[in-house]
Write a structure and sequence with these properties.
Oligomer: homotrimer
Largest interface: A-B, 38 and 27 residues
Distance between the termini of chain A: 35 Å
Helix content of chain A: 10-25%
Order of helices and strands of chain A: HHEEEEEEEEHEEEEHHEEEEEEHHHEH
Chain lengths: ~425, ~425, ~425
């Protein structure tokens, strides 16, 4: 349970809010690289942490992310022309490069130096791992790009996507670091009982895993162990990578050859977020249809919501729910969206009742609240500056019960 | 005319508002019995007096009406599974019975007693007269179910329905206790004149009826008499049954054999209400197509608005309005909706000009305001506790002018 | 740049706001005459300066513009019956004439004099130049109707229209008195350069015209001169006629025989406006397809927005934008709408950077702010009372550079 004050602290991310300032100290995904497919292609509009922006790829292939509003008379640069190394407002022809400098002002007399005095807000942007990343914080605090697994593999080894979710970003994160819900929301029938002998799926078998959280330099890793029979535990270790990324445990075989997937939840505004999804395999290209189901969803073209969404009750099929799956909702990613959106635009955490399986959620909130309080007191919060900090993966292994959590993280290391 | 303060008092019904607290001292219709057709059928979502709720019929056939939000992490129970005597949240499997007790918490260790500490808000609900009724007030003040006519007849003797109306509930009531408007809104052309010899319809013949209001134990009854020729009055006696029900006068023949209809207006939130409609005949089953026109309207499946609504100007046909009917709008119930919604979400009663025909409206508001003021002063308002109080019907009779209002109510009793 | 305070002053026009009171001292277009095609035709609903109104043409052909809400119980008169010299509410039959007097009250007893005490808000309205004009200010300050060119010609010499634009009215005006943008927003490729020898269009040839503003009795006229080669200037003189009208310079040949067009922007509410468009030729009837493109747009029937609007990104064609026109948007009027709406519902003028070509905009704002401040201090602002003040037109001429602005206005007079 959070106080209303703390709930607002972690959920509000507009300019000047403590949480917004904290998140702006990280590189965050803004859009997919393929949404700006080539130099001088059409610009794309964006909303990140309540800021309206326009992204464009210039003639050199570099990406600019600038204010949506032309500083002259506030026309939208989304309608602008992406021309020779700059975006030109169609209202009076003012043109800006990716650094925000005004490089042409044809509506003013040639002898005027007004052009040199006008800048547009522009944020550093980088193509990295299939995403366009943006850094919206103080220039002097800009960290290295995170060396996430999917950025370190060839392009055909990864699959990336994004979609809009109609809820505050924290609800997305709280679903992502909640190993417990996979035993319910994502599983088939019959209802989950620890002692059901017909239950073959490891994560289905024990709905009440034990949780252990361990703070790391990239955020934290938490382990959830479930009874797996024969004096063994089924361990799932999930890294929470600041500011809001996860890697889902799964797969079997050699950990170096598995396909991993994960999500990041980027605030659009306080009541909507972008779920970015990445899947990758370090050892081979991904196969057709492989990768997280979220990356295979059909989206509405303008909103980028799933076509199966709250307006159609996520396509819930009550007969299927009664007889085949726990939810009657087809896609894992839509199951997540249905539940996270069902809490309302901003979950009222003053009325929740957290249990033992919510330990990672509590850990995440404490990290966020500490960073917020630091910023409010003028203390610079601790932010990983080195990209190599983020060279991590998840773990899903069956191990003897005698293996401790610490030993687990050593035997099958999360950090790689 | 009301002050802005009093207008807000009677129109706001959220938890903690005086009017909301007063209405919560009555059983109110929540949905139709047939919307929960059988044990363990899919749950239905509800909004009543600004509270978001979920209704389900359990394995025993009993109905539970509980908070929409699971107390664990606030996922919506609408997506829940209606299982063996309880509704189970699909996020982590917490299950609640119709009393709000948590009867299973599979995400917590078996030895945990957390389950016993968690409850969900649950309201008493009863199947009665074709409606599911809910009582949302203090347990110790719960009255008997009202012995309304349609609840005392076999199922085939009644017809019930509900639809959404996009205005505050008081506008609905004020249309329901306004005998005067039937001479205009619901009638055909030519325009209504008291002295028109071609005017055959009794209620059409005299657009300026005289009103008399008499307080009763169930609320009040008002009589409206119109000139009926031959030294007679056409009397219409309408009961206003607390907190917001009416029975429309009509029909002829033996009062015990007439088909009666009426409405109740249940606040959804402060700008929308549910109009519940009931028709019944104590002496025989209803015939095909019989009963109030509101129960035969085609509704939009998700919103439960009429498909003929404000977005299409209620299908107004100006040529029909010019030559055939007063409004050019086809259905009586849509005529009511058009006018009540046209006042805006909450009618600005500081700018109205009430006339003599608005006497019942004034009586209703006084009752409401008195109850609100009682509650604000810590005085428990007078609420009928006995179900038999509501054994009433309406009256429509032509009587000699010499018969007084009091005699009228004796000769053709409203109370039955 | 404006302060937030001044931006609100000029953009808010509801009853009681300084700018709203100032605008209410002028006749403003309310709808097209053809929208009330004949006596006793269906009423039309309107929203002007945040006031909800209903317009009807009575049996004599006179137009009434009255409050949307019947003073009895606040039903909308839009659903009313337009009967023998009055509009009758369908709820209880109260009837009002164009002066706002209640002329029938059939729901009250015949002997009642309540009718004489009830009035509805009614504004003077006039058919003039193809528009219905309304005067919403103090009766004693009502000026003459403006003798605008299109009102002084036979009906077939003019073309009028209106459409909704989803932004504050000031953004419309600021586009209308901005001669500079036509060199960009409305022109073809290649990009505009002053020195491009292939550039044949006069207004395209010089993107940085010089501006001169001259205050007049009707508002102001501004001249914009562009290099036209051979020691000549291309002059465009645009009158700004209070409170919010313009005439676009254009055409060639004898100024008395040109077809002129212009716009006025009437606030609907603070975030939407009605763009009224007029085209006329004093010397001959307009030809098929002639007149401003805004008058040939297809509109959505209920909203009266262009069917090409923000919901479909104004039909922008990025390939056309890359190779053919500056915007990739087809219609001049839609180009204007796209840019004006893209600034948001109310442009944030605290963040703009005005240049030399924005001189007329600055002049307009100063006039508005002075009028607002006068009203706030109890000083009656200067408003032209004589209709003949508005007998003006625009000028588009190529003249020797030796001709001064003042000489220009004498040689090709704006006032006619």
């Amino acid at each position: 349970m959070l106080s209303q004050h703390d709930n607002e602290l972690i959920t509000k991310t507009g300019p000047g809010t403590p949480m917004g300032e904290y998140l702006r100290r990280y590189w965050v995904p803004a859009l997919l690289s393929r949404e700006l497919p080539e130099p001088d292609c059409p610009p794309v509009r964006l909303k990140i942490m309540c800021e309206e922006l326009v992204a464009f790829r210039d003639t050199n292939g570099d990406v600019g992310i600038v204010d949506n509003y032309c500083p002259h008379r506030r026309a939208s640069l989304f309608f602008g022309r992406n021309e020779e190394c700059g975006i030109r407002c169609v209202y009076h022809g003012w043109k800006f490069d990716i650094n925000g400098d005004c490089v042409d002002m044809p509506s003013e007399p040639a002898e005027s130096n007004f052009k040199d005095k006008v800048k547009i807000k522009a944020y550093p942007a980088e193509d990295w791992g299939g995403f366009i990343w943006v850094y919206m914080g103080p220039a002097e605090l800009k960290p290295e790009l995170p060396e996430v697994g999917y950025a370190l593999v060839p392009e055909h080894h990864r699959l990336v996507s994004r979609r809009l979710q109609e809820n505050n970003y924290v609800q997305g994160i709280e679903g992502g670091i909640d190993s417990s819900h996979i035993s319910f929301l994502h599983f088939g029938l019959p209802p989950v009982r620890r002692d059901d002998p017909n239950n073959k799926t490891l994560s289905n078998r024990d709905g009440a895993p034990h949780f252990i959280v361990k703070t790391t330099d990239y955020g934290f890793v938490y382990g959830a162990n479930r009874e797996a029979g024969d004096d063994k535990y089924y361990w799932r270790l999930t890294p929470f990578m600041l500011p809001f990324f996860t890697i889902i445990p799964g797969g079997d075989g050699n950990p170096d050859e598995r396909t991993y997937s994960g999500h990041g939840w980027v605030p659009a505004d306080d009541e909507n977020c972008w779920m970015f999804t990445y899947s990758w395999n370090a050892s081979r290209p991904l196969r057709e249809g492989e990768g997280h189901s979220a990356s295979h969803l059909e989206l509405e073209p303008r909103t980028m919501r799933s076509v199966v969404n709250k307006d159609n009750d996520y396509g819930i099929d009550r007969e299927m729910q009664r007889t085949q799956t726990f939810t009657g909702i087809k896609d894992i990613s839509v199951q997540d969206a249905s539940i996270q959106e069902s809490m309302g635009p901003i979950c009222d955490r003053t009325r929740e009742h957290l249990g033992t399986t919510d330990a990672p959620i509590i850990a995440m909130r404490r990290m966020y609240l500490k960073a917020c309080r630091d910023l409010m007191e003028g203390v610079e919060p601790d932010v990983p500056r080195s990209g190599s900090t983020f060279r991590v993966r998840s773990v899903a292994e069956v191990l003897d019960k005698s293996v401790t959590f610490d030993e687990t993280t050593e035997r099958v290391p999360v950090a790689v």
